[in-house]
Specification:
Blueprint lengths: L1 E4 L5 E4 L3 E2 H8 L1 H6 E6 L2 E3 L4 E2 L3 E7 L5 H20 L4 E2 L4 E2 L2 E7 L9 H14 L3 E6 L1 H11 L2 H9 L6 E6 L2 E4 L15 E10 L8 E9 L3 H17 L1 H7 L3 E2 L9 E2 L1 H18 L4 E2 L5 E3 H7 L1 H4 L6 E2 L12 E3 L4 H9 L3 E2 L5 E10 L15 E11 L4 H18 L5 E6 L9 H22 L3 E6 L9 E7 L5 E10 L2 H4 L4 E2 L5 E2 L2 E10 H11 L13 E5 L5 H13 L4 E4 L5 H10 L4 E5 L1 H6 L1 E6 L5 E5 H12 L2 H7 L1
Parallel strand pairs: 1-7, 18-23, 22-29, 25-26, 32-33, 32-34
Antiparallel strand pairs: 1-2, 3-6, 4-5, 4-7, 8-10, 9-10, 10-15, 11-12, 12-13, 14-15, 16-17, 19-21, 20-21, 23-24, 24-31, 25-27, 27-28, 28-31, 29-30, 34-35, 35-36
Helix pairs in contact: 3-4, 5-6, 8-16, 13-14
This protein binds one RNA strand of 77 nucleotides through strand 14, strand 15, helix 8 and helix 18.
Length: about 650
RNA sequence: GCCGAUUUAGCUCAGCCCGGUAGAGCAACCGCUUCGUAAGCGGUAGGUCAUCAGUUCGAUUCUGAUAAUCGGCACCA
């Protein structure tokens, strides 16, 4: 007998091996009918699974949040059946649930197109309407291999063979069709319902490896109810509206063109935005960091020493004199990173332990030959600016430096309105340099730091471990921020480096007069400033806080009679440092309001005959229909206060 | 880099299937209008149809190559 505990706390005895379905049926047939799966001690399993040990039981209906994954997974199976019915000979591979939906990878001569979706969805609805029960069988390895071989499912055969011998080989059947699957699944395909949609097609490598064949992937999503699907589709539209490439055009920030793939043409407004960000970051460095600048072109030997020429040459640009009969035949590399330059500055002159920690910062422009398919607006480009810094310190100073960097990163993110931050510690990878003792030491230091920042900032920080994901030269922290619509962006990073100072022969003189290689910490807060600008645009949906907005105020006139007053206002505002544009065109105020709203100008100051006479202004804020009237002086004071960057405000407080 | 799609006026898009050298809306420019918070009215101008080849009497249209972009995959020191 097994003892089963129900959610209300009641306990009942059942014969060992009783299924969830039998228990539900015993309680009431309607419960059994609406239950799609069960959870045993919190683990979701098939309702038809036998219960062999004492357990807490919960019956899941399709509205249960935990059932969503099942709906999507079942839907992936139905998608696969539909595709194989429509195009016999198509091979199935895997079809997992992912965030916001599912996909299924197929192998087929001609890839699918979105035009195929109509037919596939129709077939899927037919299959769901048939409502075949989903039943599980455990097969032997041999049976499974010979079955899939006979069907010509080479990928499934490979999957079967890769499942460890101690695991059951589970086959889920839905009527005639079956698939190898870990499960769990709902009781029947009819439970999927109708709130599903195929989203897009894409190529994807078998097992995620670019040496493997390319498969045709179909993405889809499914929800328990149609309203949820509709809400999700709306959210996608919202994300499209926020797309920085679209806003970049609408707000006239930047453009790209064919002659410079992966490089940004910043327009005046975009460059103002970018430089506002740089100015802010520069202020945040003062006192602790020394800003430096290292050459854009250096002889390739520099990169041979650093190791990059060997490891990353494919992703580097190089440059030579363009002259036909120049004597200079040297090959220069365009810097893909700033560290070697900073090591040279460190090495210039003899350093004492008394000089440490030494913190060199650079807004370093780097070029990397990114794969053509990786480029994405300003988010992934081939020429970008890092808010980079390298800290040279002693072993003893390492923990304190990591903590100091952490404080700065969190403070910066907070100033831009990012609330939730994830800090991941990536530890030693397979391929690495340095002794195990060094890694042990560094990892234990960083683990301690991680615990400390978690204890101190637990309200905004979540921490995680990323085993084996460290850089080859040392462990690292990665800072991931979450934007307004819940997307995660990895921006900041703190990396400990045992390797580079030694490669370049950098050292300092210790208290006992010994040459000692310093510990080097690489650190970036925004990462790529171009990308960070893009993230800010999407995070704020173009509606930038006043202190970052490239154009903070537009003064718009209603009639010509207010022109002189408008000029007076603009002069007064500019004098106090506000970024103001004038709109004295002969257009209706409706037209002007519409245009500047679309251009996402945060503040419109509207002046007509009345305001000119009374020396007042009518203020309209972006995203609001309301108008506030106040005197010119009140308005300027309020705007200046709001336009003061948060760090300057703190300093003034 | 790989799979698929796309590329026509500053922007958004039609025309291409069925070859006879282009069309709309918005923006721009010029007038008129001086107007109270998301598109006033009229007119004008603007395109070697991404590039290079091929087929053809003739190519924006058909074929091929190249480039860029988009959606994924892979990559991201």
């Amino acid at each position: 007998m097994v003892s089963v505990t129900f959610p209300d706390g009641a306990q009942r005895q059942f014969p060992e091996g009783v299924t969830g379905f039998e228990i539900a049926q015993g309680i009431s047939p309607s419960l059994a009918k609406r239950t799609v799966a069960m959870a045993l001690d919190g683990v979701v399993v098939d309702l038809a699974d036998p219960i062999k040990t004492d357990a807490r039981i919960e019956f899941l209906n399709r509205e249960d949040p935990r059932a969503l994954e099942l709906i999507r997974h079942d839907c992936a199976h139905v998608l696969a059946e539909a595709v194989q019915t429509l195009w016999p000979g198509t091979q199935v591979t895997i079809g997992p649930v992912i965030e916001n939906g599912f996909y299924y990878d197929f192998f087929r001569e001609t890839p699918f197109t979105p035009e195929d979706f109509v037919a596939i969805e129709k077939k899927m609805r037919e299959i769901i309407a048939r409502d075949a029960p989903l039943t599980k069988e455990v097969w032997s390895r041999e049976d499974a291999v010979s079955f899939f071989e006979k069907k010509g499912e080479a990928f499934k055969v490979e999957l079967v063979q890769s499942i460890p011998g101690n695991e059951d080989l589970k086959i889920y059947k839905q009527g005639e069709w079956l698939d190898l699957c870990r499960g769990p699944h709902m009781t029947s395909v009819g439970k999927i319902g109708s709130a599903f949609k195929l989203m897009k097609v894409a190529g994807a490598y078998w097992r995620g490896n670019s040496d493997n064949p390319m498969l045709s992937r179909i993405y889809g999503t499914a929800f328990a109810r149609q309203e949820q699907l509709d809400a999700y589709l709306k959210q996608i539209e919202e994300a499209e509206r926020r797309d920085h490439r679209r806003l970049g055009r609408e707000m006239d920030l930047f453009h790209f063109q064919e002659e410079a793939p992966g490089a940004i043409f910043w327009h005046p407004k975009g460059w103002t935005l970018f430089q506002t960000l740089v100015a802010y970051m520069r202020r945040r460095l003062s006192g602790d960091y020394q800003e430096v600048n290292a050459p854009q072109l250096m002889d390739k030997s520099m990169w041979e020493i650093s190791g990059h020429w060997g490891w990353y040459r494919e992703n580097m640009f190089m440059s030579k004199s363009a002259g036909d009969d120049t004597e200079d035949e040297r090959t220069y590399a365009i810097k893909p990173m700033n560290c070697p330059g900073h090591v040279q500055i460190f090495k210039h002159g003899l350093r004492s332990y008394r000089d440490l920690p030494l913190r060199f910062a650079e807004f370093g422009i780097v070029h990397r030959y990114e794969p053509s398919g990786a480029m994405h607006g300003v988010m992934r480009v081939r020429a970008f600016t890092q808010d980079d810094a390298h800290i040279f310190c002693t072993e003893e100073q390492l923990a304190a430096e990591c903590l100091k960097i952490n404080e700065l990163i969190l403070s910066v993110y907070n100033d831009f309105g990012f609330g939730k931050i994830l800090v991941k510690l990536s530890t030693r990878p397979e391929k690495r340099v340095g002794t195990d003792a060094m890694w042990d030491h560094a990892e234990s230091v960083m683990m301690r730091v991680l615990d400390e920042i978690k204890a101190k900032h637990g309200d905004v920080i979540e921490t995680a471990l990323n085993p084996g994901e460290g850089a080859f030269y040392g462990p690292k922290f990665e800072y991931v921020l979450r934007d307004a619509i819940g997307r995660d962006w990895q921006c900041g990073t703190t990396q400990v480096d045992f390797n580079l100072p030694e490669r370049f022969g950098a050292f300092y003189i210790s208290p006992t007069s010994e040459k000692t290689p310093p510990v080097m910490v690489h650190r970036a807060i925004c990462g790529s400033l171009e990308r960070f600008t893009g993230i800010l645009i999407e995070h704020f949906a173009g509606h930038m806080p006043l202190w970052i907005a490239p154009v903070q105020v537009v003064v718009a006139t209603i009639t010509q009679e207010a022109d002189d007053y408008a000029y007076e206002l603009i002069a007064a505002m500019r004098k106090r440092g506000l970024r103001v544009d004038a709109d004295i065109r002969n257009e209706k105020i409706n037209y002007k309001v519409r245009e500047h709203s679309l251009a996402k100008v945060p503040v419109m100051v509207v002046v007509g005959k009345k305001e000119a006479q009374e020396k007042t202004v009518s203020i309209r804020r972006l995203g609001s229909q309301a108008q506030t009237s106040m005197t010119m002086e009140e308005a300027i004071a309020a705007l200046i206060d709001e336009a003061t960057p948060p760090d300057v405000k703190r300093a003034n407080a």
